[in-house]
TrEMBL record:
<dbReference type="GO" id="GO:0008483">
    <property type="term" value="F:transaminase activity"/>
</dbReference>
<dbReference type="Pfam" id="PF01053">
    <property type="entry name" value="Cys_Met_Meta_PP"/>
</dbReference>
<dbReference type="InterPro" id="IPR015422">
    <property type="entry name" value="PyrdxlP-dep_Trfase_small"/>
</dbReference>
<keyword id="KW-0663">Pyridoxal phosphate</keyword>
<keyword id="KW-0808">Transferase</keyword>
<dbReference type="InterPro" id="IPR015424">
    <property type="entry name" value="PyrdxlP-dep_Trfase"/>
</dbReference>
<protein>
    <submittedName>
        <fullName>Aminotransferase class I/II-fold pyridoxal phosphate-dependent enzyme</fullName>
    </submittedName>
</protein>
<dbReference type="InterPro" id="IPR015421">
    <property type="entry name" value="PyrdxlP-dep_Trfase_major"/>
</dbReference>
<comment type="similarity">
    <text>Belongs to the trans-sulfuration enzymes family.</text>
</comment>
<dbReference type="InterPro" id="IPR000277">
    <property type="entry name" value="Cys/Met-Metab_PyrdxlP-dep_enz"/>
</dbReference>
<keyword id="KW-0032">Aminotransferase</keyword>
């Protein structure tokens, strides 16, 4: 059968590819497809798209963002190595650094990256990796990627950056000196809240090292999820630019609301790292579709506020086309001691907000009316 060239990339929903002779078997094991955990066309196609977006040499697709992080760390680190990690970090990445890595004899030091001197002071002869998100989850603190790259490379270490909150539409960390970029593709890159995957973008030499560990750990991405995300990638530029512009507009409106004590978004002049944001991002409207804000720590009124929202709704994810709320104290950072959370700026009154593709003025009106419960 000859189907010519398909308009959309096909789904290869198979666990294995067949071969007719030992010669073909040898050829396939060297350069073609064999078994789904080893390689798959859908993963490869998605990886090529990610590499293009991130301006990287090569990319690997994983079962999740956490699968991408842990598999990579297990590849590039060994017992006795030391990692410097941003203290303002996603809760489960915090657990990887403080609970999982020590079981393999890997030491992690968590410091406040807002002051770059803290990173310099944390360097040890055994330091092999510096790790941060572009924008911290959920406080939005910005990592000074060029400064971190200089520190890492002058000390023989690698710089690994999580680009989930921003994506390559906003910033390309490799262009600023990062060696490895991770994305939880489940979020903005997919954009439709219907598939889970993660990616690593780095040099071909490093992906060649990570690939066999990915097979051994069982963390390659699912072909169907990769196929879904390849579709989602066709609208990423349209979606992200609208989401980022709307987030900047909504952040300004929330900052002016008398019931909101603080708003975290890098576009705001009040944001402590606004000058760094202007250095790293092209404009206020192309920084991130994420923000966080703090309201009074009154659980009864917080419940009423959530119930009054019409467009935004609570969900334990981010980056979809619908605006979603998340409460870090009861979700991503629930396992952390309250004093540690507060040091990071995370209080029981904080909400993380992922802005969707709804009209920005409609979102502002929705939040404005819902926040009135705090005046009752």
């Amino acid at each position: 059968m000859n189907f010519n060239k398909p308009e959309a990339f096909p789904l290869f929903a198979v666990t294995a590819f067949t071969m007719n002779s030992l010669d073909e078997v040898k050829e396939c094991y060297n350069s073609r497809y064999t078994y789904v955990r080893t390689n798959n066309p859908n993963r490869d196609a998605l990886g090529q798209i990610v590499s293009y977006l991130e301006a990287g040499e090569d990319s690997l697709i994983f079962s999740s963002g956490m699968g991408a992080i842990t598999t990579t760390l297990m590849t590039i680190l060994k017992p006795g190595d030391h990692v410097i990690c941003n203290r303002n970090i996603y809760g489960e990445t915090f657990d990887v650094m403080t609970k999982l890595m020590p079981t393999f004899g890997i030491e992690s030091t968590l410091v406040d990256f807002d002051d770059i001197e803290n990173v310099k002071k944390a360097i040890k002869p055994s330091t092999k990796l510096i790790y941060s998100e572009v924008l911290a989850n959920p406080t939005m603190n910005i990592a000074d990627i060029p400064a971190l790259a200089e520190i890492a490379h002058s000390n023989g270490a690698l710089l690994m950056i999580d680009n989930t909150f921003t994506t390559a539409i906003a910033i390309k960390p490799i262009a600023f000196g990062a060696d490895i970029v991770i994305n939880s593709m489940t979020k903005f890159m997919n954009g439709h809240s219907d598939a889970i995957s993660g990616s690593i973008t780095t040099t071909k030499a490093l992906t060649d090292m990570i690939h066999p560990i990915r097979m051994l750990c069982g963390t390659p991405g699912d072909p169907h999820a990769a196929w879904m995300m390849t579709r989602g990638m066709q609208t990423i530029d349209l979606r992200l630019k609208k989401q980022m512009a709307s987030a900047a507009k909504l952040a300004k409106a929330l900052e002016q609301n008398k019931y909101v004590s603080k708003v975290n978004h890098p576009s705001l002049e009040s944001f402590p790292q606004n000058a760094l944001a202007k250095k790293l991002f092209a404009s206020d409207d192309t920084m991130s579709g994420m923000l966080s804000f703090i309201i009074p720590e009154d659980e009864e009124k917080i419940n009423k506020f959530m119930l009054k929202l019409n467009l935004a709704h609570y969900a334990t994810t981010l980056g979809g086309i619908r605006t979603t709320l998340n409460h870090p104290v009861t979700s991503s950072h629930s396992h952390m001691p309250d004093d540690e959370r507060r040091k990071m700026g995370i209080t029981p009154g904080m909400f993380r907000l992922s802005v969707g593709i709804e009209d920005a003025d409609d979102l502002i009106a929705d939040f404005t009316q819902a926040l009135e419960v705090f005046g009752e």
